[in-house]
């Protein structure tokens, strides 16, 4: 491959005609500047590019920043980036991060100036050595390194949590060392990575920080400078040793890059590379060759685990191409779906977030923006790769299929820039691609993969690149796979797909403590659950807890349903407990459901032959059309694939009696299991035991601040009257937490004090009593930091106190009080139970107070309680309007100094530690308290809302961010797409976030940048509960939204009362027009009221326009719209 340059001078052809303007042109949009610091206040110093993304969402395809005297122009659209990629007019600049990196690698290929002599010499010598033939020769060495990683994973077993950032960095470090220099770092042969690797990681982190700090702060960071210098000196000493060893002991038979650097000659000048340049290039290869590749592998793993249907396609392709055979070089081009997935990963979010260029002379871009050669032009790759003009309306979706069937070849020029651009693009692109495809093929051939934490949401760690942070997963060898499958010397086999596989054998300490001496007599069974709200997990743990009493044990413990992929045993019964989320599987069941659907579609009817199973489903009837969809689907597909159903499908409606149907189904299943398994162990009850210790001094509660936010304000916005009191709360999130409009704030509440007091009084406990809980495997009762837990923490933060008593629990109380005819009636008469207990929400505690003679012990009471579930609230703010705040400014609220000021820089330098920045979000919530309890016991108090309502500003709040269950419940990626929003009451929360986001864009770019948006908002009284009235009026005036409020009880005289669906019906012509223009409908509110009525009025509008359509056909049409055009986030 010839170098495009023939001589060293900076090539700026005189025959290039730069565009010009007749007039002054248009000013480049930019945020308001502040004296001295310019736009530095808009920037998160710990995550620079996240601020670029936020500002691009506000200001659009081009904007400028003034950062301490330096001008940076950010371009984010394909149209502008295509122009800036013109090599005749623009070239790479090393200002910024790359300039800092020159301290480490000097003038290597990556960091050299475009007219630097060393770059020409190195480029002309090295580029031919990284051509296709040379890269093909590296294949065996790549397989060698990958095999070390997968064999290590295999040895550690299925319970081991693999750290993706750690192990993929080890892999890519080993690969580049072996392939480029024939040097083995042996990163997988020790628990800790080699010093060279940690020194490089530390140096990269520090280099990234240096660029984003003020000069005064860098000057004050003495220890950071000394550490960086020490790391650089060590790395260069290792490189010098490798070079000296090769010179002393030449290996001319090797075709590696080190030989090329040592003995190659520049074909133009005849020069050789100096030892210093070789050392710089050595380090350049290690940085560029491992950091970006490992980041890509982590992103790809995360994306596939979050999109299990795509993961199944990867498995299917690898099985078809490789089978169980050893991987060979010829397999790589045949793995088309893996190639598409890798390319889509780099498009969706890759490790390189931007490319820096500058113009060779003064010029104009976009036909109207003047550009100075001294300015840095930052190509925002996230903006480019999500440009809807190139990638369509689904640009924000992860869809590898877009690069299949000619999609890759038809991609416009300069629309995909994951490896840089032009002559300064990544020279190791072919090496990285071959390495990644090889690794993925061998991983998928051998392992089933699952998230270690099914609820993990992507967190980004920025260095000079970006990659997932704290990302862990588990691997389990696929059934029937030999230990050496896919590796050199492995036997060639036909593909097989057995249903059963190797199960997990590791047991937690909690389970070991729960085992009895009769464990040898206990029959095994497997329990899998799917759900994110803890309900299904609670049922699963409840069954596990009761199993020994009926002669069974759960040797593998309660497992996520995704762990059942290709892993359903045939030697023991399988119990599956799962839920639906608006008709879709929960996060930790997506892979399992996708596996069943894929194999059923392929006609593998005997896949699960020999598997005995039972399914129990949890759901909420308010989601009428998707009620229990996933449990029913799993139950039917397993039968279709050959499994044997041993118990009819059990179902519970969690909006009513959450425990009764479960307990009845469980009681019916145990006898069936005993008969099926031949269990003979004596049926015996186990009891939770609680030991109470009265300390001499109060115990100190401990909590982790890592997941703790700070409440900035908690303001009443509507007084109680026509409805419940409503409040607006702003929360400074824990460091590193990020969110998008449409996400949830998940809150861990504390039970109301009055409820806690009632429990204490009933059982003679004190708040500071220390309790020791044994005899149970339920994690929420035993997972303490210490051996003991205070009575207050156990009752206040671990268990639900107000859940209605189940009929079986009523029967247990009746057995304790035989003289009570009332309890006997409630426990035996279903109608009486429903009217007197379930509908009045009478808890076990209520019954104990109603029947004080009942002798239920505290241990027995505790065994009846469910775990305290976290509550989630739709976020009512947009991150675009809240610049990140460095966490160093919030550690001590009474002394706040901005990092962007000289004083703040000095304070940060004194601490000599960079923390992640914090962002602010808000929630809007009803305060549900004060009304008489239906049970007749005092006043009702909602657990979470009453807790939140009483927290003043400055309080700490245990919270985290969770992505929306409806992945498309977002604003459309194309701002011109019309939006129809429907909300009622506090369902305004996500709509406020969306409108706030649109208003920010309108303020920066003008309302013409937006498509039309209308909000249908249901309130009771125009004078009392019209939430955010003034804000909505201001945003309407700015052109961000058109507000159509509906007042059901008291409306302005000129308007009249109406419900939301009635206003929509009156506006149906406007609705039709917007929908035909591509509008996305977003709905938030009560599922049983607003959700149902909005659905019905949309069907009614559709049928009016299509009179030939039947009611059933209209419903089918509506279901299709709910895939991507009609999106709801409704609650029960």
Structure write-up:
The structure is a single chain. Residues 1-12, 492-520, 694-706 and 888-915 have low confidence and may be disordered. The strands form 11 sheets. Strands 14, 16, 17, 18, 19 and 20 form a 6-stranded parallel beta sheet that branches. The chain has a 6-stranded antiparallel beta sheet with strand order 27-24-33-22-23-30. With 1132 residues, it is of the alpha/beta class. The chain is globular, with a radius of gyration of 32 Å. Among the domains are: 509-686, Flavodoxin domain (Rossmann fold); 705-752 and 871-962, Beta Barrel (Elongation Factor Tu (Ef-tu), domain 3), CATH 2.40.30; 979-1131, 3-Layer(aba) Sandwich (Rossmann fold). It has 38 helices and 38 strands. Helix 26 (807-816) runs antiparallel to helix 27. Strand 6 and strand 7 (369-371) form a beta hairpin.
Rg result: 32 Å
**Percent of sequence in beta strands:** 15-25%
Q: Would you tell me the overall average pLDDT?
A: 86
The largest sheet is:
6 strands, parallel
Catalytic activity: an organic molecule + reduced [NADPH--hemoprotein reductase] + O2 = an alcohol + oxidized [NADPH--hemoprotein reductase] + H2O + H(+); 2 oxidized [cytochrome P450] + NADPH = 2 reduced [cytochrome P450] + NADP(+) + H(+)
InterPro entries: Bifunctional_P450_P450_red (IPR023206), CysJ-like_FAD-binding (IPR003097), Cyt_P450 (IPR001128), Cyt_P450_CS (IPR017972), Cyt_P450_sf (IPR036396), FAD-bd_FR_type (IPR017927), Flavdoxin-like (IPR001094), Flavodoxin/NO_synth (IPR008254)
Organism: Phomopsis amygdali
Family: In the N-terminal section; belongs to the cytochrome P450 family.
